[in-house]
Amino acid sequence: MKKKIYIKTFGCQMNEYDSNRIYDSLKNINFEKTDNQSDADCYVLNTCHIRDKAKEKVYHEVGRVRKIFRNKKKPIVVIAGCVAQAENEEMFKREPYIDIVIGPQAYHKISDLVKKHVKSDHLEETEIDTIEKFKHFDTIKNDSNKVSSFLTIQEGCDKFCHFCVVPFTRGPEYSRPFDKIISEAEQLIENGVKEITLLGQNVNAYSDKNNSKEFRLSDLIKKLETYSELERVRYTTSHPLDMTDDLIDCYKNCNKLMPFVHLPIQSGSNKILNAMNRKHTVEQYLETYEKIIKINDEIKFSSDFIIGYPGEEDKDFEETLLLVEKIKFINSFSFIFSPRPGTRAADLNLLDKAIAKNRLEKIQKILFTHQININKSLVKKNINVLVENKIKSQNKLFGRNKYLNSVIIDGKDEHIGKLVNVHVDNYNQNTLFGKIISLKHKAA
Ligand code: SAM
Ligand code: SF4
Ligand code: F3S
């Protein structure tokens, strides 16, 4: 009989992609995915270390798992992801209930570790071996058949922003070979996937310099454009430094590339950008923005903001607000600076908590207003929506428009996986509501 694996995923889209690849990998040793956590023979927590008390949260989660299985056979408990990489075997000392600790660049070894594990073993694998990992996964079919699926093309980071743990948890920048990415995309398309989001910690730094020709993100986008069954292409997360002209030009010619650019800036103050080691100025960011909206002024931007970075004064924050007013970002993320152990900014003097909180509330109010305004502007209009799944509890369909906004619609199961034309009749900050009026196109 097959054993069951359950994965609880935290953090970014790359963790979601990785979790699916872990399922794919464990199939080879007779495991199958379960959505019922209390059935699990193997329980994986795929963790994130980006902010806050990440470590504490993981121990809290393990405590919860222990409770679920109090009167049952203990599952193999695996800690994967960025906390695993950062904490490694220290985790066993604090929580012996954990069996396996595995870092993101060692997932090619996960099925061996699970197979090898015997009662009371503590197995740790946090060697960074990105090339071997991808070689291994290139031989395993990607079984994702979600209408909208992720595909990692680049991993790791060499930029070392002073606040960020990613270069330590994901290792150095690595770009997968172009042909392997395309084969995986073809598998996804064969599985029925209609939208592919290309992923990387710095996705637009993608560079495969094989056989004297360099393949860039723009080449991947152009290639994906040629698959007739694929409806949409997205990519995330980009760094402003790597927004090269070849990528910007894709917005001219690639119809499947969605007109939505997630381009984190973190702060609107050059002083703070410099202190963060972001390696670009606000003016350079604006130049990229202008180039892109000159191609098509319907293209919208979203961003990430870190509020209350050490040294941020009122005037720096005001500059961030000015930028937000200028660009009218939608769907953005904003968080108070969280010192991460091991990073350059870890020991800097923190801002007064109340000041940081007050600034966060201010910026979020403006960001949310932009979000509401764009949603409001779509009411009574027809928009294209890619239908992703059914919300069973509401007997409605869920999809997204070109700007990645959630859309809840009346429709039939047969619409799942289709691009439909929706008449929007209502909205709130996060969601649009409407009815399907026809299949496909001629919509905003
Ligand atoms: N590589 C992307 C870039 O450079 O824009 C960002 C990747 S990071 C996983 C996602 C976001 O987390 C960052 O853009 C930043 O806003 C936020 N972040 C990272 N470290 C943080 C910290 N120490 N405190 C608060 N937010 C943080
Ligand atoms: Fe982190 Fe900066 Fe690298 Fe983005 S570019 S992953 S924020 S170090
Ligand atoms: Fe978190 Fe690691 Fe992603 S720290 S945001 S899971 S790269």
Can you describe this structure?
With 444 residues, this protein is an alpha/beta fold. The protein has helices spanning 13-27, 54-68, 81-87, 90-94, 110-116, 130-138, 166-169, 178-190, 217-224, 245-253, 270-276, 282-295, 314-327, 353-377, and strands at residues 3-9, 31-33, 42-47, 76-80, 100-102, 123-125, 148-152, 154-155, 174-175, 195-199, 207-208, 215-216, 232-236, 260-262, 300-302, 304-307, 333-336, 382-391, 396-400, 406-410, 419-427, 431-439. Strands 2-1-3-4-5-6 form a six-stranded parallel beta sheet, with helices on both faces. Strands 18-19-20-22-21 form a five-stranded mixed β-barrel. It has a three-stranded parallel beta sheet with strand order 7-10-13, with helices on both faces. Helix 10 packs parallel to helix 12 (282-295). The longest helix has 25 residues, at 353-377. The radius of gyration is 22 Å and the shape is globular. The protein starts with a strand and ends in a 5-residue tail after the last strand. The model has no long low-confidence stretch (mean pLDDT 95). The structure holds S-adenosylmethionine, iron/sulfur cluster and FE3-S4 cluster.
Question: Strands, helices and their partners?
Answer:
Blueprint: E1 3-9, H1 13-27, E2 31-33, E3 42-47, H2 54-68, E4 76-80, H3 81-87, H4 90-94, E5 100-102, H5 110-116, E6 123-125, H6 130-138, E7 148-152, E8 154-155, H7 166-169, E9 174-175, H8 178-190, E10 195-199, E11 207-208, E12 215-216, H9 217-224, E13 232-236, H10 245-253, E14 260-262, H11 270-276, H12 282-295, E15 300-302, E16 304-307, H13 314-327, E17 333-336, H14 353-377, E18 382-391, E19 396-400, E20 406-410, E21 419-427, E22 431-439
Helix pairs in contact: 9-10, 10-12, 13-14
Bound molecules: S-adenosylmethionine (SAM), iron/sulfur cluster (SF4) and FE3-S4 cluster.
